[in-house]
Write a structure and sequence with these properties.
Elements: E1 2-6, H1 10-21, E2 25-29, H2 33-40, H3 51-60, E3 64-67, H4 71-76, E4 79-82, H5 98-110, E5 115-119, H6 127-138, E6 144-148, H7 158-163, E7 168-171, H8 175-184, H9 186-190, E8 195-198, H10 200-231, H11 235-243, H12 264-277, H13 283-306, E9 315-319, H14 335-344, E10 348-352, H15 357-363, E11 367-369, H16 373-377, E12 382-385, H17 397-403, E13 408-411, H18 418-423, E14 427-429
Parallel strand pairs: 1-2, 1-4, 2-3, 4-5, 5-6, 7-8, 9-10, 9-12, 10-11, 12-13, 13-14
Helix pairs in contact: 1-3, 5-6, 10-12, 10-13, 12-13, 13-14
Length: about 425
């Protein structure tokens, strides 16, 4: 099949490369000429393990190409994906759908023959109806269908998630459109991946409901961690004890500094706003948004308290800046709340991240960015671990002590054992553990 993918951001590029690897011919389209030139040369503008090799292989085998103009690709396509950004709209928190609607207008102007137009972007309920209306207005006699096909990719594991998903959700009204989508995902049918066909609005809501539930799960265990600290319990053991219950599950029960990233913050907020529009408030999700925002700010207070009540004039070493490991994504990362709060309290910050420094430099000021973890610790009064990159899990404790002026570690991801760290001579503070 021939596929046009409008948007070469995280979702569009990963999806396009994976569809090409399935054997389809895919053209990824972006208006940014510099980005397209990079992609044509086999480079990738985002950090995602294995993506560069996947892109290079499919370019070499003639299944993947890139363009700044969508005309030819859309005219030839059986399926056109809209995979553009839907950021939170400034001022009210609703999803900004201007890029989605602009893409729909451009598609309408050039499509030929029966075309399935798919919203891959995360969009509020009813967006597909508006996309269909836009195209129908421009092409009253056009042969097309508008389908919802939300993504469920985890940054850092996106390729595996695409090729071995828990499920694929397709919201399509017409049998013909469902047949096209079934053929598109045929390799996954062969792997017996569940393909959930629904009405379009249901599909749109599934994406938001999934992200909101996971965000609530993270926020729940973070609040339980606070209670554990108050009563002298261990949140990791609580997580294990409840996670072994098949009705609950162990995933997303790791206490930490709060969720961030490109999805959970904007999607929970957009879902709350959609619910308000329909006079059907989601109080649990609203509380999740509020608690998570407070959580990230409270982590700076935790660091200050562990430092004796003041960080004024002190140097704090920070390991990990991105919202999670194996990505360079800094969107809504806890570090963006924690570091400015420490600086406001008078601290000097030295920071290291394996992939996020280039993005962090655009968002954080007056931070000394260094090229390795021990350089960050050199002469620092405390070490703070914000993101649990693998390379931080087995640091040389002797080098840490030799580097720090004070053997204080505040581990916001619980990657070390408190008893072992105490035995090594550290003052060690973690989350939700005695």
């Amino acid at each position: 099949m021939r596929v046009a993918m409008i948007g070469t951001g995280y979702v569009g590029l990963v999806s396009g490369a994976c569809f090409a690897d399935f054997g389809h011919h895919v053209t990824c389209i972006d208006k940014n000429q510099e980005k397209i030139d990079l992609l044509r040369s086999g480079g990738v503008p985002i950090y995602e393990p294995g993506l560069d090799l996947l892109v290079q292989r499919n370019i070499r085998e003639g299944r993947l190409d890139f363009a700044t103009d969508l005309t030819e690709a859309v005219r030839e396509a059986d399926v056109v994906f809209i995979a553009v950004g839907t950021p939170s709209r400034r001022g009210d928190g609703h999803a900004d759908l201007s890029y989605v609607y602009a893409a729909a207008e451009e598609i309408a102007g050039v499509m030929e023959g029966y075309t399935v137009v798919v919203t891959k972007s995360t969009v509020p309920v009813g967006t597909g109806d508006e996309v269909e209306s836009i195209i129908r207005k421009a092409r009253p006699d056009g042969a097309f269908a508008v389908v919802s096909n939300p993504e469920f990719l985890r940054e850092g594991a996106a390729i595996d998630d695409f090729k071995r998903p828990d499920r694929v959700v397709v919201g399509a009204q017409e049998p013909k459109a469902r047949d096209v989508m079934r053929e598109l995902y045929r390799p996954l049918f062969l792997n017996e991946t569940p393909i959930v066909f629904t009405e379009r609005r249901t599909s749109e809501l599934i994406k938001y409901a999934a992200n909101a539930f996971l965000a609530m799960k993270i926020t729940f265990i973070n609040e339980i961690a606070d209670l554990c600290e108050a009563v002298g319990a261990n949140v990791q053991e609580v997580s294990k004890g409840i996670g072994l219950d098949g009705r609950i599950g162990a995933k997303f029960l790791h206490a930490g500094p709060g969720y961030g990233g490109s999805c959970f913050p904007k999607d929970t907020l957009a879902l709350v706003k959609t619910a308000e529009l329909y006079d059907s408030p989601l109080r649990l999700v609203s509380a999740t948004v509020e608690v998570n925002a407070a959580r990230k700010k409270a982590m700076a207070d935790k660091i200050i308290a562990a430092s004796g009540g003041s960080v004024d004039g002190k140097t704090i070493a920070v390991l990990g800046l991105t919202f999670k490991p194996n990505t360079d994504d800094m969107r809504d990362a806890p570090s963006l709340d924690i570091i400015p709060a420490l600086q406001k309290a008078g601290a000097r910050v030295k920071a290291y991240d394996p992939a996020g420094i280039e993005e962090a430099e655009k968002l954080l000021s007056d931070v000394e960015f260094v090229t390795g973890p021990y350089l960050a610790m050199e002469g620092a009064d405390a070490l703070v671990i914000i993101t649990e990159w693998n390379e931080f899990r087995a640091l040389d404790t002797d080098r840490i002590k030799a580097s720090l002026s004070d053997p204080l570690i505040i581990d916001l991801r619980n990657i070390y054992d408190p008893a072992e760290m105490a035995g090594e001579g550290f003052r060690y503070v973690s989350v939700g553990r005695p």
